[in-house]
Design a protein that fits this description.
Two copies of one chain form a homodimer. Chain A is α/β, with parallel strands linked by helices. Chain A has helices spanning 25-32, 36-44, 51-63, 70-77, 96-109, 131-137, 156-161, 185-198, 214-229, 246-258, 271-283, 301-305, 317-334, and strands at residues 82-87, 115-120, 143-147, 166-169, 179-181, 204-207, 239-240, 265-268, 293-298, 311-314, 347-349. Chain A folds into three domains: 22-68, lambda repressor-like DNA-binding domains (434 Repressor (Amino-terminal Domain)); 82-183 and 318-334, 3-Layer(aba) Sandwich (Rossmann fold), CATH 3.40.50; 185-315, Rossmann fold. A six-stranded mixed sheet of chain A has the order 7-6-8-9-10-11, with helices on both faces. In chain A, strands 2-1-3-4-5 form a five-stranded parallel sheet, covered by helices on one side. The interface between A and B is large, with 70 and 71 residues. The structure holds a DNA duplex.
Chain lengths: 358, 358
DNA sequence: TTTCATAAAGATACCGGTAACATCATGGGC
DNA sequence: GCCCATGATGTTACCGGTATCTTTATGAAA
């Protein structure tokens, strides 16, 4: 039973332009007198190839500078070896924090073939809220690492519900089963406040971060709790809002230092704001640390380089990145949801911006 | 002539796990009573489909939340819609400079389906020098944007010679036909020096960047030239080395301000170092701008936020990113090497760190 | 009415790998 | 010597699109 159409002879597709042409497994196989299936086994590191043949294949491959075509490989195995790195808010992309996380992620990726794809939610071409889900549907990535979301972020839930491999760096509402990794902010803040209290400071001001960030919420809560635990009173006029920028720190500092009763120590919920507070102190003619002690949070590169060098809470950001990629790879490669890791310990780095109260 | 083997019946591959299963063009086609070829035409925006059918296809696609499988599409069309973003030296990834470039790139990418893949050459898994060429061979990207390389960078040449689409942000040795885009550093420095000279400063110090960076070389050359043009002498003891970090700026500033004849103005080759110079001034008890004027270069976010706000040369970084992506897309999409664009104009932003000499 | 250019839609092969299964050679255990 | 387990290797059928060519429908020109 022949098809009703006459037989056709269709010319093979025109060849790719030379720049894009490349060696294929079939070619290597031909040179080695075998088939591409065997070559495929060699490169995938699967068993079932004799040592002699394997070496022959590798030799030819090296000679021809062969590299496995990831495109074709992905297509066949349905894995693309890209991980989406999502930066959902202003200022993240260009920060040392970002840099450290990337370092950690790359370390965790290790020998895996995955690379990081940048998705900056602030870019104009990302305005549509379902961008990430579309990217997933398009098979551009195998999963996402989402940096420090707002607790209320709406775009995480639909992703998670679609079964997209996902790790959040920061804290998310527990319960909907999203993997996440965070530092132990509470503990970090506690150490900072206890350090200041131990130096005899009584009036310890607080400069906070954006309210919608979970990290900011946790740090503030821990400040209040620790103050109470060490027997100090929290004066509401000493609790200043901020938004994690140097400017907001400087403005908060200016208000604090102009108050009729000024604090002898200030804890800022991140380093940038702490630097701003120090600037405000200088502008008001106060010396750090003689007149006022300042402590930050994060221990980014700037903190150590500043003058005076900032006493701050060191967050193991690189390690967080490393753990994040491990959690994600577990989901992608082994389809295995690792148990939620505990928050990672912070520690206090005492530099030159704090001193005992005289 | 039948093959010598008996006919075989091989079971179809097991289906993908549900999470990864998805609607295909064939499915949409079936629902619309047509073939996947037509559906393909619709999504590629190619002509040859009646309006009625096109709408029908789009309607079904929307209903099923269909997205074209980029993996398969890339495979077939031999374009992967990823662009490699290469950061070849320390500190770039976490800088505002990086952030701005990315903003510009994303803007330039516009509606193109390309996304950015991060290649941080400092990551341990990138130690091998031919990483980029391998990535290219693996068909993971369609081309590269390389940020501010050393002029001597060896890894650019082999890439360019292999015909890899490539744009360098910064200056490269002309002649080997690598597309590049840069700001007019010379002009920027000229404006800064003329500004200070116009304020009556005679002893204008210079704090430079790493010698192997082309931007640093050009800025220094322009400093010398402009000083001569405005009739001022360059004292070699007033030309300090630096490496674009705040710390190096502070150290350079400390030396300058402790010299027996100290400068009344300092130009630093980037903002971070300028901030360091201001810190050094304060540490030595000098006021900015009353005792010493300071000018930076780049106009990153910190410059405006600092106190006192920094007078600096504004570099159109975002625009540079935008031009870079346009240049690259031209090569990728149209196989067209656009003519080398001229350096983009800088302009001077006068803030609070400079004042006339009394 | 016939011819032919043009637009719409279909048919086929193919991109370069991988999954699943088939086959074959080898050698040990009986 | 025969059977079967085992490991090496080959065969086939895809993955889900796109390039290219063919066929069919439509309508204007002759």
């Amino acid at each position: 039973m022949r098809p009703k159409k006459s037989t056709k002879v269709i010319a093979p597709r025109t060849k790719l332009k030379d720049a894009r042409r490349s060696v294929t497994m079939a070619e290597i196989a031909r040179l080695c007198g075998t088939t591409k299936m065997t070559v495929s086994r060699v490169f995938a590191g699967r068993p079932g190839v004799s040592e002699a043949l394997r070496e022959k294949v590798l030799k030819q491959a090296t000679r021809l500078k062969y590299e496995v075509n990831q495109q074709a490989s992905s297509f066949s195995s349905n894995r693309v070896n890209f991980i989406g790195l999502v930066t959902p808010f202003e200022g993240l992309l260009g920060s040392r924090y970002f840099q450290r996380v990337v370092e950690g992620l790359n370390r965790g990726l290790g020998n895996h073939p995955h690379d990081l794809v940048l998705f900056d939610m602030l870019s104009p071409n990302f305005e549509s809220g379902d961008k990430l889900e579309r990217v997933w549907r398009q098979r551009k990535v195998d999963g996402f690492v989402i940096l420090a979301p707002h607790t209320t972020d709406q775009f995480i839930r639909p992703l998670a519900e679609s079964g997209v491999p996902l790790v959040v760096v920061g804290e998310v509402d527990p319960g909907h089963g999203v993997a996440s990794i965070t530092a132990d902010d509470e503990q970090g803040v506690r150490m900072a406040i206890e350090h200041l209290a131990g130096y005899g400071h009584k009036l310890i001001a607080y400069v906070g971060g954006p309210e919608m960030l979970s990290s900011a919420q946790r740090r503030l809560a821990s400040y209040r709790e620790t103050m109470e635990n060490v027997g100090l009173e929290v004066k509401e006029s000493m609790v200043m809002p901020g938004n994690y920028t140097m400017r907001s720190g400087r403005e908060a500092g200016a208000k604090l230092f102009r108050a009729k009763r000024r604090p002898t120590a200030v804890f800022a919920a991140n380093d940038d704001m702490a630097l701003g507070v120090m600037q405000a102190a200088m502008a008001e003619g106060l010396r750090v640390p003689e007149d006022v002690s300042v402590v930050g949070f994060d221990d980014l590169a700037e903190a150590a380089e500043y003058w005076p060098a900032l006493t701050t809470v060191h967050q193991p950001i690189r390690r967080i990145g490393l753990v994040a990629s491990n959690l994600l790879l577990a989901q992608i490669v082994s389809d295995f949801q690792a148990p939620q890791p505990p928050p990672l310990d912070c520690n206090l780095v005492v530099r030159d911006s704090t001193a005992p109260l005289e």
